[in-house]
Amino acid sequence: RERRRALAADGAVWSWGYGGVGQLGHGDTQDQLLPKKVEALVGRRVVAVSAGYFHSLARTADGAVWSWGWGRKGQLGHGDEQNQLLPKKIEALADQRVVAVSAGPFHSLAITADGAVWSWGDGEDGMLGHGDEQQQLLLPKKVEALAGRRVVTVSAGASHSLARTADGAVWSWGGGVSGKLGHGDEQNQLLPKKVEA
Predict the structure, then answer these.
(1) How confident is the model over 10-32, as pLDDT tens digits?
(2) Closest among 158, 136, 3, 159 to 72, alpha carbons compared
(3) C-alpha to C-alpha distances, 84 to 20, 74, 116, nearest whole angstrom
(4) Concatenated DSSP letters for 77-123?
(5) What's the alpha-carbon Rg for the chain, to the nearest Å?
(6) Tens of pLDDT along 35-70?
(7) Three-class SS state of 142
(8) How far apart are CA 44 and CA 167, in angstroms?
(9) At 96, phi and psi to the nearest 5?
(10) Does the structure show a pLDDT above 80 at 140?
């Protein structure tokens, strides 16, 4: 089942499609056949959105991150596994100014203004980048292996993660099946590793 997310010029968020676990942000689990404004975010200027399989992330102009939808893997970042039918601010990032977000199927990534990467949710195959395969991380945690490197872009895949640093380098970590990490093998990487190719 598909869904879509759109960001209007006035900072409003509109969503439509499959809403079975609240990922459209309208306070219910109804499908939406037409775009509908996410009223819970009215009055907050949203500057970026990212749609995972069953959860959604939004970044507001003040650097806050909001999440909603399916929380079973901890990918909402609220410290629990509860679903959220309405957007809810991730308080664990309240002291950080977030400049980018990416929602994968079961995990989430954020970049803060200092160029640090934060991850949370499903840790299978090491896709959170913390050096382990912890099944769940319910709160955002800084990826220490990238400390000192200014990350400018992140992307959360199905079982792996990518980051681009300010020097133009690409780093990958997580599940390596089919060679998707770009290291010339199919090994999992529990920590970010530079793509030398």
Answers:
(1) 899 999 999 999 999 999 999 99
(2) 136
(3) 12, 11, 26
(4) -SSS---EEEEEE-GGGTTS-EEEEEE-SSEEEEEETTS-EEEEEE-
(5) 16
(6) 999 999 999 999 999 999 999 999 999 999 999 999
(7) strand
(8) 33
(9) -115, 145
(10) yes
